[in-house]
Design brief:
The complex is a heterodimer of chains A (about 350) and B (about 475). Chain A has a two-stranded parallel ribbon with strand order 1-2. Chain A has one domain: Amino acid/polyamine transporter I (Up-down Bundle), CATH 1.20.1740. The model of chain A has no long low-confidence stretch (mean pLDDT about 90). Chain A is mainly alpha-helical. Chain B contains 15 helices and twelve strands. A five-stranded antiparallel β-sheet of chain B has the order 1-2-4-5-3, with helices on both faces. In chain B, strands 6-7-9-10-8 form a five-stranded antiparallel β-sheet, with helices on both faces. The C terminus of chain B is likely disordered. The chains are: A mainly alpha (about 350), B alpha+beta (about 475). At the A-B interface, strand 1, helix 4, helix 5 and helix 10 of A face helix 14 of B.
């Protein structure tokens, strides 16, 4: 199905950061997001939490650089449980990505796009991307991330006259009641942890990915927050998609507004994220099955199920609500960080002991 | 193997050539020994043949043994600079077909090939493609030896290694492999050599025949570069690439090729770095305009008119209201019409080609607008995109295909169609690997050192600090040419 290659740390980190910023920019209805100065604190605290959760995985990248989902742990009970846990939450993440992309695109500039062709085209793009390989997707992600940065610069330049620094005020927490809820919700958006855990074995210099990813995505989200806070001020808290609204008022003379380009970038980011989820599942399945055809069938089934579920959830959002509520507790991420450690710890200890002898 | 009997060898040669009339066998006596001069008509220089072969041999006085005559040809006669021995019927014919005169001696089981080539060749002229403002005006020609000399003149060092091999079962074409030994990844050299040795073609008339066998099976992009310029070719070798020159073709090939190289010209190295940065950014922008502008225009006009500034939108609407076709149809008609004109202009003699351009561009262009068949803004959009495509001439074919795809998808599905098409093209480019090196290097994967000469070009002082050895360092785990 896909050509097996390894990718560089920067490409993989850029891909993860792009998908993380995608989750940030495309919120779903009912998600609890408040803006204002508190947003900066929320982002920073949530990234500190995320960094803490990544510590077990960092330990694994140092001790098992070939990856935790490798065929040599085939047959172990805990490994099977870890795989099943990852599989379920990767599917939930992929369905959420499809849902997010569809909802965002259809409620903004692509309002003319009916669901059927949205999913058919995203499915086609996903199939092509997965068939082209992990390296191709990571390199594409780097290009899309570069396009996003350019869009951000263009928006900042277009809105230079609207930026009012006096809209910033010295406050860390505006509302102490909502603050913890927001931090947890922000933390729960880091589903990239699952992708990283499944795929870091295929990354050259895997140890560098975590600081790069956390640094790039945190900086990007903070920069976006700064821009829409200084442009919209108190109005920001009433906007569904502040970044999209910013692009909607960015007049670059040639175009009255550049929100179309903004949506294009997020749709591409969604395709990248879905492809990364698919590669992650493929890695999981390969750690249990030797038969390449079976691995391909299961991986294809996963992609189909993810798109099918997200389509179903667009029709019946109440079906997705319990899964979303569970994910938003952040608990699955904590478990996803600890389970591989528990799974790999005996092997690491054995290795250390034999090294000492 | 050749026989010691001259008569027998002559019969074998005639039989092998099936009586071809251009095979010339001239029998004579030199020092009392029967000899035969084997040449092909039109391949040798008559003066060289007379002065370097016939005159010295036929002026030998007295009787000599065949062995002594062979010794004289090998050492004493001022035959020519190039001399080699051949010992099979095939090698005798191969040498003679390459313009050499083969001397066969009765009683000796081998022949002596003397380099007296004199076939008609085109002189070294300015290349038709990749023109530059400053720098050399020399371009490759169809003769392999001349092309090799153009390369060797630029690298007078034993580090430049040139290996010639004969490929093509029927054409037996000389193909030359060039590299700068100290700069080249040996795995890459071995991979290219192997691919050439395994070439299944029996007829090679142009380097374009060899090119597909040096690259991966990608329907859109080529990972082997072609150039008519010896200076560009040498600079590619200096970066650690492998060059391939094919006899009969003025285009030399090099591998691996990167996507970013399509935006680099020789003049970039002769201007100030600041201007180079500006002009390279213009080229990237022109590439994006060439592939995206008509599709984007159609998508905006059909699906997202709210993105267009009001004043412009009013003008566009007024213009489109006068035309009978949909925006998508108009755009497709114009794009196809432009491709027809381009093809006609390319294949026709240059004088007629200019006339076609004038008739197509000015007369028809003006009339279709005044007749109300297409809107002036649409014509302008397609014209700007077409002209932008010429800036990146190496990608002009790819641009045509991509532009058409974007027009269709933009016209049918709006910006969403453009997004999906753009994503697929992006993945298509990023999936390419040329001999283990990603096609999108050094942008993605990012290489800080190679970025010195990608968008911006560092000054010569900075560039001269280290060698441009991006192809010497193997990409860990990935470099499997």
């Amino acid at each position: 199905m896909s050509r097996e290659t390894t990718v560089g740390a920067l490409e993989f980190a850029a891909a993860l950061a792009l998908t993380r910023v995608f989750s940030e920019a495309t919120s779903l209805p009912g998600e609890y997001v408040t803006y204002g100065m508190q947003r900066f604190t929320v982002v920073i605290v949530s990234f500190l939490l995320t960094a803490a959760v990544y510590i077990p995985l960092y330990f694994l990248t140092c001790n098992i650089p070939s990856g935790i989902f490798s065929p040599d742990r085939r047959g172990k009970a805990l490994h099977g449980f870890t795989t099943a846990f990852f599989g379920v939450f990767l599917l939930a993440g992929a369905a959420d990505t499809g849902l997010r992309a569809h909802y965002y695109a259809s409620s903004t500039v692509f309002d003319s796009a009916p669901s059927w062709y949205f999913y058919i085209f995203i499915g086609a793009a996903l199939t092509f991307a997965v068939a082209s390989g992990f390296g191709a997707v990571s390199r594409t992600a780097l290009l899309v991330a570069a396009a996003l940065v350019m869009l951000f610069v263009l928006m900042t330049a277009a809105l230079a006259g609207e930026i009012k620094p006096d809209r910033l005020y010295p406050a860390l927490i505006d509302d102490a009641q909502t603050f913890p809820q927001e931090v947890i919700r922000e933390f729960s958006l880091n589903g990239e942890l699952l992708i990283f855990a499944a795929l870091y074995g295929r990354v050259r210099g895997g140890k560098r990915v975590i600081p790069l990813y956390l640094g790039i995505s945190c900086a990007m989200i903070l920069a976006m927050t700064l821009l829409y806070n200084t442009v919209f001020g108190y109005l920001t808290s009433k906007l569904d998609y502040p970044f999209y609204t910013l692009s909607s008022v960015s007049d670059i003379t040639l175009l009255h507004r550049i929100n179309g380009i903004d949506v294009m970038i997020w749709v591409m980011a969604a395709a990248v994220k879905l492809a990364l989820f698919t590669f992650a599942v493929r890695a999981l399945v390969r750690s249990h099955l030797r038969n390449a055809a079976a691995v391909n069938i299961i991986t294809a089934g996963f992609a189909l199920a993810a798109l099918g579920l997200s389509w179903a959830f667009t029709k019946r959002p109440e079906l997705f609500a319990p899964i979303k509520a569970l994910c938003e507790t952040g608990l699955p991420l904590v478990i996803a960080a600890l389970l591989p450690l528990a799974d790999a710890l005996p092997a690491i200890l054995r290795k250390k002991r034999s090294e000492r002898i | 193997m050749l026989d010691t009997r001259l008569e027998h060898n002559c019969i074998d040669l005639l039989a092998a050539m099936r009586g071809s009339s251009d095979l010339l066998l001239k029998r004579a006596k030199a020092g009392g020994v029967d000899v035969c001069f084997v040449t092909f008509g039109g391949q040798t220089d008559a003066n060289k043949l007379a002065n370097l072969v016939f005159r010295p041999l036929l002026s030998i006085t007295g009787e000599v043994t065949p062995e002594r005559l062979a010794e004289m040809i090998g050492s004493e006669l001022p035959a020519a600079c190039e001399e080699k021995t051949v010992d099979t019927v095939e090698s005798v014919l191969g040498a003679a077909m390459s313009g050499e005169c083969v001397i066969l001696i009765d009683g000796i089981g081998k022949g002596f090939a003397i380099g007296v080539q004199g076939f008609e060749t085109r002189s070294v002229t300015q290349p038709e493609t990749h023109r530059n403002i400053r720098g050399s005006r020399e371009g490759f020609v169809e003769t392999l030896t001349t092309n090799i000399s153009l390369v060797r003149r630029r690298v007078k060092s034993p580090d430049l290694v040139i290996r010639t091999m004969k490929l093509g079962k029927t054409s037996v074409t000389d193909v030359c492999l060039c590299c700068i030994d100290s700069m080249t990844d040996k795995k890459l050299l071995a991979a290219v050599t192997e691919r050439l040795r395994e070439l299944p073609l029996s007829l090679i008339l142009e380097s374009g025949y060899v090119q597909p066998f040096l690259e991966a099976k990608n329907p859109l992009f080529s990972e082997a570069g072609a150039t008519e310029r010896p200076d560009v070719f040498v600079s590619k070798l200096y970066e650690g690439r492998i060059g391939v020159i094919v006899d009969g073709s003025p285009f030399a090939l090099y591998v691996p090729k990167l996507f970013s190289e399509n935006f680099i010209t020789l003049d970039d190295y002769l201007d100030k770095p600041l201007f180079t940065l500006f002009i390279r950014l213009v080229r990237y922008m022109a590439f994006l305009i060439a592939i995206l502008l008509p599709g984007f225009y159609v998508a905006l006009a059909n699906f997202h008119p709210e993105l267009i500034p009001d004043a412009l939108l009013r003008n566009l609407a007024a213009s489109e209201a006068l035309t009978p076709y949909s925006v998508l149809t108009e755009c497709m008609i114009l794009d196809v019409f432009y491709e027809i004109m381009r093809e006609a202009g390319l294949r026709l003699p240059s004088n007629v080609g200019h006339a076609v351009s004038i008739v197509g561009g000015i007369v028809i262009g003006d009339i279709v607008v005044s007749a109300g068949l297409v809107g002036a803004p649409m014509l302008l959009t397609v014209a700007i995109a077409s002209i932008s495509g010429y800036i990146v001439s190496d990608l002009s074919n790819q641009i045509s295909v991509m532009r058409f795809a974007f027009i269709v998808m933009g016209g049918l599905f709006g910006l969403f169609g453009l997004t999906v098409t753009g994503f697929i093209f992006c993945v298509c480019v990023c999936s390419l690997r040329s001999y283990g090196y990603p096609f999108t290097m050094p942008i993605s994967p990012f290489s800080r050192k190679a970025m010195r000469d990608t968008f911006a070009r560092a000054g010569w002082r900075e560039l001269s600090r280290s060698d441009p050895d991006i192809f010497r360092k193997t990409e860990e785990g990935n470099n499997e040419p």
